[in-house]
Design a protein that fits this description.
It contains 5 helices and 19 strands. With about 300 residues, it is of the alpha+beta class. Strands 3, 8, 9, 10, 11, 12, 13, 14, 15, 16, 17 and 18 form a 12-stranded mixed β-sheet that branches. Strands 2-1-4-5-6 form a 5-stranded parallel β-sheet, sandwiched between helices. A two-stranded antiparallel ribbon has the order 7-19. Helix 2 links the parallel strand 4 and strand 5. The protein is globular, with a radius of gyration of 20 Å.
Length: about 300
């Protein structure tokens, strides 16, 4: 029988309790279960004085995870899914996200549907949807100083986020552009409903082969979100004398100094999501973010 991964947010009692139930059910059906903590995908924030992370993004893959694994079940909230993506994408293991958190925007199933979800897993009644991911690298000359995989976005800004920065940004073969803003966000379509949305960027449906550059509080009416081909690598040169803070998917990052540059490119390894039913993106937007709800006028006062 194929092996199944189990990635658990060990800091949440509900996730741990659910993991025990799932592991017992899978082992009873004859599957070998490889259980790991989602903490293995939390790259964290580098020490400001020693922020070298020369290991590539493959370093997040847990022991025992490889391409022969049928799938990995992820227990936690959206943050846990982002962490699990770093652990599974390099070896192309599909993930089934079962929400034990709050919003659950990236979840495929909920605890109320756990029995049905496991039945579908055991009978292989599922499909795979691929989502674009990014390789985010901090370079100094030819030296890679830091690197991580990103499913949502990379944000680069001053610390604290209180004053304007200058950025020179080169997108593929195009002429570099200058942006003055509190910061910039480079996001995937999956990340278009996260930080980029809060910064005024558009929602992008997941199947679009594009990336989005969104300035944070730009100091120009001409600086607005830009959508472009995901085949174009992006290089960001900080044109500010002070150090900047780079944050990836809200849970990883490092300082970026004036002599550094940030290189972002589409990863050759997409994040694979297990789908138990047709994934209707507009319905997710409606249920989670209230998009497209009908307007209901307030009744006239009597």
């Amino acid at each position: 029988m194929p092996r199944v991964g189990l990635i658990v947010n060990d800091g949440k009692d509900l996730a741990v309790e659910t993991a025990i139930t799932i592991q017992a059910r899978l082992e009873l059906a004859g599957h070998e279960v490889v259980r790991v903590s989602s903490a293995g995908g939390l790259v964290g924030f580098a020490n400001p004085d020693q922020h070298l992370r020369t290991l590539g993004y493959n370093a997040c893959v847990p022991e025992g995870f490889d391409a022969s694994m049928a799938l990995a079940i992820v227990l936690g909230g959206d943050g846990t899914v982002l962490s699990a993506a770093r652990q599974t994408a390099p070896v192309q293991v599909p993930i089934l996200a079962i929400n034990t958190g709050h919003l659950g925007f990236l979840a495929e199933a909920y605890l109320a549907d756990l029995d049905r979800a496991l039945d579908q897993v055991l009978t292989e009644q599922w499909t795979i949807e691929e989502r674009c991911s990014l390789v985010v690298s901090v370079m100094r000359g030819d030296q890679r100083r830091w690197e991580a995989l990103s499913l949502n976005e990379m944000a680069l800004h001053r610390e604290p986020l209180t004053s304007m920065c200058h950025f020179e940004i080169a997108i593929g073969r195009h002429a570099p552009v200058d942006i003055s803003a509190d910061g910039v966000i480079l996001s995937t379509p999956t990340g278009s409903t996260a930080y980029a949305l809060s910064a005024g960027g558009p929602v992008i449906t997941p199947e679009c082969p594009v990336l989005q550059l969104a300035p944070i509080a730009p100091h120009s009416l001409a600086s607005r979100a830009l959508v472009f081909s995901d085949q174009e690598p992006v290089t960001i040169f900080p044109a500010t004398p002070e150090r900047l803070m780079m944050v990836v998917d809200g849970s990883a990052g490092c300082y970026v100094w004036p002599e550094d540059r940030v290189l972002i490119r589409r990863s050759d390894h997409p994040v694979k999501f297990v789908r138990l039913a047709d994934h209707e993106f507009f319905q997710v937007l409606r249920n989670k973010l209230g998009w497209g709800l009908p307007h209901i006028a307030k009744p006239d006062r009597l």
